[in-house]
Amino acid sequence: MFQRLLLGVALATALAPACAAEQFEASAHVFNGSGYGQSYLGAGGTTPLYNQALGQVVDGGNGAFDAFGFYNSGVGALSQTRQVELLSGNVFRFFDTFTNQGASSITTTLNFFGNLGSDGDELVSSAKPGLLVSCEDDGSGSCGSDPVLALVSGNKGLGRAAITPDRYNVSFSVTVKPGESLSLLNFAFLASDVNGPTVSDLWLAQSTGESLLSAPRLEGLSAQQIATIANFTTPVPEPTTWALLALGLGLLALRRSRA
User: Fold this and answer.
1) Relative to the CA of 38, which of 11, 83, 196, 241 has its CA 20 to 30 Å away?
2) C-alpha span between 84 and 68 (Å, rounded)
3) 104-107, long-range: CB within 8 Å, 24+ apart, which pairs?
4) How are the residues of the chain apportioned to helix, strand and coil, as percentages rounded to the nearest 5?
5) Domain coordinates of the chain in residue numbers?
6) Are 214 and 152 a contacting pair, CB within 8 Å?
7) CA 49, 51, 55, 60: dihedral to nearest 10 degrees?
8) Chain centroid offset of residue 32 CA
9) pLDDT digits over 48-69, tens only?
10) Does the structure show a pLDDT above 90 at 41?
């Protein structure tokens, strides 16, 4: 079932109408609390961010974020490691693992936070469990200059996400037993034509968010890491399934390059 879903998502995306103009390329720096750190290298890159609680994404391209993607409360006695990457296709992936090194169970609410780049003018275009699509208000109820965002927090109902003016918060209520670990996976997808967001970018953000919600991108994560994810249903597909998915995404890239 999961294999058919992955193939369907890839082929449906490949056959979808091409955007009117080329998409901008997201780029960002890590701010580690004392200054700018390394740039992201994209999928397969060699500089993921580890072990920095304040390792948020700054900008993201076209003013998408002010400081996005870190846990600002609830970590407490849990130890935390993190891996943050800019994957291909303007998808930021935040993979955080929390471990209870104590002798008693720990129950807490972890809050994943983002300061958006809209300066209080954020519109919510679509909201469903695990997925919010939003953009900056241009003053007339349409998307302004910032990219359209698809913010994905999981498909198991664990996260409670909300956007208040210029703020994105997802709360995860968890219990971690002594010696155990759990991981939380969050995605942020940015959509914008090179000349600024259009109506087609809203569609692109919605469709990409739906794809990430049903089939989260796990490339580069080990089977051990995937097994600890608490907020997504993540069966591991066979290698042939990944090959079919890659074929569909390749067809999409070819179609867009010809367009």
Assistant:
1) 196
2) 11
3) 104/178, 105/175, 105/176, 105/177, 105/178, 106/76, 106/77, 106/78, 106/175, 106/176, 107/173, 107/174, 107/175
4) 20, 40, 40
5) 23-242
6) no
7) 20
8) 19
9) 444 344 467 878 888 888 888 9
10) no
Evaluate the CA torsion angle 16, 91, 152, 182 in order and state its sign. positive
Task: Report pLDDT digits (tens) over 174-230.
Answer: 999 999 999 999 999 999 998 888 889 999 999 999 999 999 999 989 999 999 999
Alpha carbons within 13 A on the beta-carbon side of 153: 27
Q: Which residue has the tokens 């955007």?
A: 19
Do you know the residue count of the chain?
Answer: 259
DSSP secondary structure letters along 26-64: ---EEE-SSSEEEEP--TT-S----S-TT-EEEE-STT-
Task: Reply yes or no on whether the pLDDT at 14 is more than 90.
Answer: no
**Angle, helices 239-258/2-15, rounded to nearest 10 degrees:** 10
Rounded distance between C-alpha atoms, residue 93 and residue 181, angstroms = 19
